[in-house]
Amino acid sequence: MKRVIIVSLILFSISFVVGAQENYPRIIQMKVIEGLRFVYCQQMKSPADMLLVKLHHKSGFCRVINLDDSLVEAKEVFPPDYMDMSEVSVEIAIDSVADIVWIKKKEFQTLKLKNSENPFKKLKSRFQNDTMESLQMQISQLFKNMSLLDYQNRMQAKYPGLLMVKKYGKGFPTILMESKSLFPFIVYPEEARMNGTQGAVALAFVITKNGDLDDEIHVIDYLGDGCTEAIIVGLKEMARQVKINNMTFENDIYYDGSYYFQLD
Question: How confident is the model at residue 29 (pLDDT cuts 50, 70, 90)?
Answer without folding.
Answer: very high
